[in-house]
Amino acid sequence: MCVCVCLCVCECAWLQAEVADSIFVMISKYRCFHAHNAALRQIADNGKVWLQEEVVSLSAQLQQLRDQFHQKTSEQLDLKAKADLMERRLTAASKLIAGLSSERIRWTADMQVALLHHLTLTLLHHLTLTLLHHLTLTLLHHLTLTLLHHLTVSLLRHLTLT
Q1: Distance CA 61, CA 69 (A)
Q2: 3-state SS record for the chain
Q3: Angstrom distance (rounded) from CA 94 to CA 134
Q4: For residues 107 and 155, what is the distance between their CA atoms, to the nearest angstrom?
Q5: Which sign does the torsion angle of CA 8, 12, 13, 15 carry?
Q6: Distances from the Cα of 97 to the Cα of 25, 90, 91, 112, 119, angstroms
Q7: b or e along 112-147 (b: 16 or more beta carbons within 10 Å of the residue's beta carbon)?
Q8: Positive or negative CA dihedral for 150, 154, 160, 161?
Q9: Which of 44, 45, 21, 25 is nearest to 33 (CA)?
Q10: Average pLDDT, the chain
């Protein structure tokens, strides 16, 4: 063989070895890539499952929070209505107290007049009783004197006649 053919055959063998090595490297890289891809797919699937579970959990929590929000909003409206009612009652009570305050002043004045009237009647009663007592004593004294006078006159007549 000629040197040229030998070189060519050598080069071909070398080229074939080089191609085989490249193919082997590519297959190895493909297998590595495929293994990494499968691992990444598994990680992604696990992450997807975890995310789905997390979404379900967060959705349940969100629903609980919405329910609590609606409940608290309802309670807030009830409390606001009660507070408004209490405020109206307080206003009415304040007006009533203010009205009763003027009534108290009027009642106090009426009581003072009634007390003065009562004291006047009591004084008149005592004066009347005192006057009646004095008149009774005077009348009793007068009756006693009159009786004594009649007795004396009767006794004198009787004595003179006898």
Answers
A1: 12
A2: CCHHHHHHHHHHHHHHHHHHHHHHHHHHHHHHHHHHHHHHHHHHHHHHHHHHHHHHHHHHHHHHHHHHHHHHHHHHHHHHHHHHHHHHHHHHHHHHHHHHHHHHHHHHHHHHHHHHHHHHHHHHHHHHHHHHHHHHHHHHHHHHHHHHHHHHHHHHHHHHHC
A3: 58
A4: 69
A5: positive
A6: 101, 10, 10, 22, 31
A7: eeeeeeeeeeeeeeeeeeeeeeeeeeeeeeeeeeee
A8: positive
A9: 25
A10: 84
User: CA-CA distance, 88 to 26, in Å (whole number)?
Assistant: 87
Cα–Cα distance, 91 to 98 (Å, whole number): 11
69-106: pLDDT as tens digits: 999 999 999 999 999 999 999 999 988 888 887 888 88
pTM above 0.90, yes or no: no
Neighbours of 8 (CB within 10 A): 13
